[in-house]
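A quick aside before the break. I want you to see a complete sequence-to-structure record at least once, exactly as it would be stored in a machine-readable document. Don't worry about memorizing anything.
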Amino acid sequence: MKIEILDTTLRDGAQGVGVEFSPDDRRRVILALDRLGVSYIEAGMIASEQDAAFFESLRDLELECAKLAVFTRTARVGTDPRDDELLRLAAAAPVPAAVIYGKAQLYQVTEVLGATAEENLRLIRESIRMLRDAGKEVIFDAEHFFAGWADSPAYAMQTVDEAFEAGASRVVLCDTNGGMLPDVVGMVTEAVAKRHPGRGIGIHCHNDLGMAEAATVSAVLSGACHVQGTVGGVGERCGNADLDTLIPVLQLKLGFDCAGPRISRLTETARAVSDAANRTFDESAPFVGGYAFTHKAGAHIDGVRKDPASFEHIDPAAVGNARSTVVSGLSGRAALLDRIRALLPETDPCSRSDPGAEGGSEPLSKDDPRVIRAAAAIREREAAGFDYEEASASLTLALEEALGLREHFFELLSLKVLVDESSGTPEADTERFSASAVIKIRVGDREYLTAGEGNGPVNAIDGALRRALLRFYPELESVRLTDYRVRVLDSKATASAVRVAISSTDGRRVWRTVGVSSDIINASWQALRDSVEYVLANSRKKTKDSAFQNQQ
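That is the input. The structure line, written in tokens, reads:
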């Protein structure tokens, strides 16, 4: 059975605190969601000339799967919908669908709108007909539906009846204040579905109880065929139902078709939308988070290697994610063994097309000298303060160093940092100090000297390094830092060693690196260097793999 997904990240999601999209961001999100295969994308509401200009820019946008929708409300009390400016703007929007909301709770009608019960039904009926006459497919959001059902089931149901009678293709039951338990949502949805068999019943849940996904699943199991939510669960107050969780639960666990084979793009879509919203990605998120299939305990790592189902409820690749292991005191040598096999695929029997063929390397074991040497190197670095649990990129580079595989793409010849405190005083802690960095690097037999400025020394070093390397490695253009953290490792006050952790992204992937030193600038440099070399090494590997495949 097909379950329609309507994404409202650009409308309801944008109502979340700290969430804001530029017109370019909105286009990026629309294209990413279309590639994922959602059925509808609510692109926003038209309430200004700027909004109208954005919708006009979508006129020639070619989409593969999704229908774009404009969001609006029913006409104002006592008016003719044909005279309502917002409804006219929505009707003229160059998109095929319109989502219109109206009150389904009698209390809201009389006390908030100041209307009679019959007047509200008229506004629902005539507003939908106006949009239908303009050629729009109309989806009606029955606002406060579940609270309305608790007050007056008959009136709440009457709003649904009127919406379908007026020509709405879908009527969406909205838990607007997010206060309904999943079993109540399921029971009420079932009652509506029985009254309107074969018609499109939808569900829209907010997360004020932390149960938006569970309530949505309950509604689907009770007859809803249309699901609304946002990527990452962003939205008003505590947010909306999270599509990153709902889509795989409905499709992979319950057998409904939400995105078909495009579900393998779920993780990249979640990251792309989070990046467009300028939000820190939740690595602990189910299915799409970086930690969703990350294993730390030695028994877990060993169990997953023998049978992934031991500690993984789905194949990570099904949602475009990947399994990873954490190297720590809890991991044991099994974690290192898997990491090294990934670096030396010829030693991994699972990656060899003919494990018994002659001429290939022997499968790697825990007692292999290379594994012992790498383990000793990691232990030594951990003793010095390095922590690789959240710095997988630096771990990969450290293992490559121990195995003699690491490629150094540049050499630092000199680095000078100047901090100018003239722009503020220690008391004026809201002021930002400015800094500049002068860096000299060597790439091959070429040397390059450049400078950069920034809000602090690390920002200045990052800018100078990027400027120096872009002429040699243009693929760094899309790379940027997303997080910077410092932790003091001992109690020697200003002489303490510090650990610097950096997160970086190219808009598709995120990787983390670490540096340790008693000098915070030096620790920052280590993490910055690893960040750049990691992405360059991966770019080089992809190029080599592509060249090899082309030769086959």
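Two observations worth writing down. The radius of gyration is 28 Å. The longest strand covers residues 411-420. We'll return to this after the break.
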